[in-house]
Amino acid sequence: MEMTTEENGLKKGPWTPEEDRMLVDCIQKHGHGSWKELPKLAGLNRCGKSCRLRWTNYLRPDIKRGAFTDEEERVIIDLHAELGNKWSVIASYLPGRTDNEIKNFWNTRLKKKLLRNGIDPDTHMPRTHLDTLLPVLPQLLSYNSSRNLTWEGIVRSQEDAARLAKVLLVGNILQLLNTGTTSVLPPVAMETFSPSLGSAQVTNRPPWDSHMMGLQLERFTQKPEFDALTCQPSFKDALRPVFQNTMETNNVMDINSNKFGESSNMYTDYEVPDLISASPVCLSTDQEPDNFISLAEFSNPPTTSEALEDILMDDEASNYYWKRVLE
DNA sequence: AACGTAGCCAACCGCCTACAC
DNA sequence: CGTGTAGGCGGTTGGCTACGT
Question: Cβ distance A120 to A126 under 8 Å?
Fold first, then answer.
């Protein structure tokens, strides 16, 4: 690898084992009180900043090497949802991991994983339905066009479309209640609709990771009786029965508490699922990518998407709640 | 075998903040 | 209070490697 040298004569680029040894020796002898003075003390032709970075990100004895565990992954996702790109703060919750390492892990893997799961990595909220549906549109089209649709099939597709519209609307209502903005992706797996849509090999997941779902529900339940935007009675009353069970059974983070991270089990109370397969018919076990999760994982513990499914699948209940919502 | 591409990660860059003077 | 400097932080780059064509 080519060695680069700055105009001031200081070396840049990758560190050699010899340089590493000199730096470690020096810090063990003298500590690193002044990073500016350290290179001279160590006999290194590097700037203090470079030495500090090398030490903190690579040579420090308490650095934890190796792949991130699932637990660490969950912590990072949840902390990022709370803190954003505060890598140094996030690193403080993960002993032995550096901010740089976490940042790289986030940018190269977690971000993509969340995107695949339909979650916007910046907001930790579901991506827009267009973002989500467009990638699978060709599959949906090719699947349906590959069949000779009978009238029954056509009607079925219409039903699918109606169900999809309902899901989108529920998602938008939820987001409106929570953030005052709309545009949200369909929060349930495609197989919810019908086999005609469910056969598409699409990366589905619950609408939000469990943690965020907890926040959503918490906010949801703490909404004032009247909607702040419309000064009308909130939709929550109409929807509350649907979520009651979920709210009672799920552990949710107390967003009013500043004790984030103090609970020893707060990261084990829920799972951040990966992806679920769109259709057991379509995907055999050995075909499933490792980032897919089973439907069983998806449905336990109960989530809002289950509640949504209840709305959608139970026609009587559906009619009742939708009547309430639309009134 | 050669080439192209994507993923990964160490290291650098530039900006911000705290602090000393 | 203004200025200079060191340290810290997040964003970005560039090289290495693995994999696909």
Answer: yes
Q: Is residue A9 in a domain?
A: no
Shared domain for A159 and A218, answered yes or no, is yes
Q: Is residue A36, in this structure, part of any structural domain at all?
A: yes
The distance (Å) linking the CA of A246 with the C1' of C1 is 58
Closest nucleotide (CA of A1 to C1')? C15
What's the confidence (pLDDT) of residue A130? 55
Cβ of A86 < 7 Å from strand C? yes
Q: A26 CA to B9 C1', in Å?
A: 26
Pair A47, A39: CB distance under 8 Å: yes
Nucleotides of C under 7 A from a protein CB: 5-12, 15-16
Which pLDDT belongs to residue A305?
Answer: 36
Q: Has residue A85 been placed in a domain? A: yes
Q: Is residue A3 part of a domain?
A: no
Answer whether the bond into residue A301 is a cis peptide, omega within 30°.
Answer: yes
Q: Do A23 and A91 have their domain in common?
A: no
Please determine, for residue A29, whether its predicted confidence score (pLDDT) is greater than 80.
yes
Two tokens, residue A151: 């009238």
Q: Which residues are A126's β-sheet partners?
A: A119
Residues A26 and A142 grouped into a single domain = no
Q: Using the CB atom, is residue A93 less than 7 Å from strand C?
A: no
Q: State how beta strands A275-276 and A4-5 pair.
A: unpaired
Q: Is the CB of A34 under 7 A from strand B?
A: no
Q: What number is the average pLDDT over the span A300-309?
A: 36
Domain hosting residue A102, numbered range: 70-116
Spacing of A174 CA from B15 C1' in Å: 38
Q: Do A236 and A187 share a domain, yes or no?
A: yes
* pLDDT, tens only, A286-295: 333 333 333 3
| Cβ(A275)–Cβ(A114) below 8 Å | no
Total tally of structural domains belonging to chain A? 3
Please indicate, yes or no, whether residues A112 and A249 belong to a single structural domain of this protein. no
Å between CA of A1 and C1' of B2: 22
